[in-house]
Design goal:
FAD/NAD(P)-binding domain; 4 helices; binds flavin-adenine dinucleotide; elongated; two-stranded antiparallel ribbon; alpha/beta; single chain
Length: 121
Amino acid sequence: MDDVDVLVVDAGPVGLLLGTELMRDGIAVSVIDKMPSRGFFCKALGITPRTLEIFDDLGIVDRAIDAGLWLTGVQTWVDAAKVPARSMCMPEAVCRTARCRSRKTKRSGCSKRRSRSMAGA
Ligand SMILES: Cc1cc2nc3c(=O)[nH]c(=O)nc-3n(C[C@H](O)[C@H](O)[C@H](O)COP(=O)(O)OP(=O)(O)OC[C@H]3O[C@@H](n4cnc5c(N)ncnc54)[C@H](O)[C@@H]3O)c2cc1C
């Protein structure tokens, strides 16, 4: 294990953001995760305006928006009947959200290792 000040056990959104913020404060961080890779299924299909503000502070908001899709409508079914389409004018950065966050963590100098577990947790 690296000689670090803080070991973050979570390469999910919270752990990566925590690692990045600590690195910005000059604290040496290592992030580990028991999963060998990021999950296949997206865990952040839509992101909120507050998340965009945080991305802006991290300097990745433009990249996140560029990598995302702007969804303009939603189609729903009720009891097998198609409901008339509704407008949904809000920004959505699809599965690339995690990739943007992960790149930022890497660029901050924070080491991230997968397939590592925290004993007893
Ligand atoms: C299907 C789904 C859809 C979602 N859609 C959205 C959405 O559209 N917008 C949105 O904002 N949020 C969404 N969420 C919620 C969002 O994904 C969670 O709030 C977020 O992932 C929480 O981040 P986290 O880092 O706390 O936890 P997690 O993402 O769960 O990450 C925890 C990590 O810690 C690791 N870990 C745990 N224990 C150990 C251990 N002992 N040793 C090593 N590693 C360990 C795990 O392997 C995991 O990778 C969705 C969630 C799901 C499941």
